[in-house]
Amino acid sequence: MLWRKITEILAEKLPESAYSLWITPLSGKVKDNLTLEIICPDTFFRSWVTEKYLSTIQEALHTLGRSEVRPTFRATTAEPGKSLALAAPTVEPVRLPDMPRVKSSIRTLHPRFTFDEFIIGNCNIMAHSACTDIAMNDSSVGRCVYLKAGTGLGKSHLTHAVAHHIIEHRPSARLNYLTAQQLTAEMVKNIKNNTMNHFKNKYHKECDVLLIEDVHTLAGRLKTQAELSEALDILLETGKKIIFTSSMAPREIPDIDAAIRSRLSSGLITTINPPSMDTRIKIIRRKADVNSLYLNEEQIIYLAENIKGDIRQVESTIVSLKAQVSLMKTPPDFTMIKETLTNIVGNNRQLSPVVIRDFIAGQFKVDVAELSSKSRKQSLAFPRQLAMYLSRKYTELPLADIGKVFNRDHSTVVHSIRVITDKRTRNTSIRRQVEFLEEKLEKNLL
Fold this sequence. Notes:
Layout: H1 2-13, H2 16-23, E1 27-31, E2 35-40, H3 43-63, E3 70-75, H4 125-135, E4 144-149, H5 155-169, E5 175-179, H6 180-192, H7 196-204, E6 209-213, H8 222-237, E7 241-246, H9 258-264, E8 268-272, H10 277-290, H11 297-306, H12 312-328, H13 334-344, H14 353-364, H15 368-371, H16 378-394, H17 399-405, H18 410-426, H19 428-445
Parallel strand pairs: 2-3, 4-7, 4-8, 5-6, 6-7
Antiparallel strand pairs: 1-2
Helix pairs in contact: 4-5, 6-7, 10-11, 12-13, 14-16, 16-18, 17-18, 18-19
């Protein structure tokens, strides 16, 4: 049976949790040898599976030599015979008719990453305002915006929202939206093909809005930095709009030329901080509404108290709860919510600089008091710097409060973060050591 063979392939490709949650409830049957009808428990399941797993199912059909078969999806709640055939969405880059097609430099836009879906709070109001101005071709904040934020705090949501707005309201604008890694790959390809004039024309003459994500990955890529620096000069001189995103401030990025660092810092630099309790409540309420999941106020507050930082965890939690509600035909209760949080967030034990300091002291077999001493011996300096770096990563405390735990001021904490960031970028051994400690810290203490 074709569906059984497909599920065997999917079982090998997908994580066990994803397979059991999203694939096991499905059933499939071939109609007329050209259509595979996949039956889903309800319309929510149909939409989610279509969005997330259609391409994987099509790949499985290709592997089985049945590429001619077209997958369709039907919810059991739909009228018999009315299956919904959905094709994988294709997003074309925004360009004038004579602009060259460079698909590799345009990121596919998330349909829900719009300004309307972005929850505004004190943590992100400046970033939201700046991106809105860029999207509307306003110059109130200048022509260049730099968004600094950790993982899952909304910087990609805002850049997608800018792109969506430009596509809808300024279709004649020429938009290039890509990551720094894609920019590097594109440049290398043009160098190999001896077509750098094409590359220069695209970013010098045929660009009205440039969005580049993860610019910290330019570290050490001197040729890309030089080409980008030249392009930025031309774009800024001609009044074009530019947005950068990164997990680091321009001054924190190691192995980067002073010229490109200066250009990254030439406009507004704004940070998206982890959302406050009130903002998390708004986000959870909105996500639940979008997914047609009813949560009472007590449940919403409980989720907001236990999901901090990465907003993607909110999305995963809501989607998982909705799937369980759809399958079990029962409203969510605290047992279901707690089990889901454990799977997604973990036990969520609260980390603090003191806990991290004690953990690092144990790993390096040094006395806790020595980490807070004035000693500058390398055997103590590196663990101390690492503990400060991890305290910054895993807690929301101000730098000054982190410094107090080690009897240092905030400038020493900043220096420690730079030192560890630089070492893990330059030294493979130290990078692996830091990643090992992060993994152990998350496993044992989070």
